[in-house]
Amino acid sequence: MVELPSITIQTVWAVLNDEVDDATANALVWQVLGYRWVGDRPQDDRWNNRWNTEAVAPDWRDAYPEPPNFIESRPATVKLTRSIPPSDKQLLKEQLQFQGYKIGELTPRKTRRATIANYLLSYLNQLNLNSPEATES
């Protein structure tokens, strides 16, 4: 796995504005959900790579033993949407003044990126890391 950017307001905007690739957007959510990539080198010199899911909530781990591709999977994105607390559902509008995409721009991919961005913003909100003071550093 490549090194991921820190989850900040700027990163949330980068997800919304398609400035980070889909793999990175997915990996940011996987990180928050608790998925960890493990690679080790067995004796036969072949790589044995796998996902460690010990930190993943049981409902996610049971449904997705390997992290889902939120950009491609509607069911995974629906589950992600449902995992956002009701009080955080409008954070993109309330905190970022994000007005949504224009009708001609609206695609499933962009809608799913908005869900990812809202989930990450909710994560910051839960940690009280989305205040102006926290985003200046």
Verbal overview:
The protein has 137 residues and is mainly alpha-helical. The chain has a single domain, classed as Actin-binding Protein, T-fimbrin, domain 1. The chain is built from 7 helices and 2 strands; from the N terminus they run H-H-E-E-H-H-H-H-H. The chain has a two-stranded antiparallel sheet with strand order 1-2. It is globular, with a radius of gyration of 16 Å. The C terminus is likely disordered.
Please state the second-level CATH architecture.
Answer: Orthogonal Bundle
Q: What are the secondary-structure elements, in order, as H or E?
A: HHEEHHHHH
Question: How many separate domains?
Answer: 1
CATH topology: Actin-binding Protein, T-fimbrin, domain 1
**Strands across the major sheet, in which order?**
1-2
Report the sheet-strand fraction.
5-15%
Which outline best applies? globular
What is the CATH C level class, in words? Answer: Mainly Alpha
Write out key terms for the chains shown.
2 strands, 47% helix, mainly alpha, disordered C terminus, two-stranded antiparallel sheet, Actin-binding Protein, T-fimbrin, domain 1
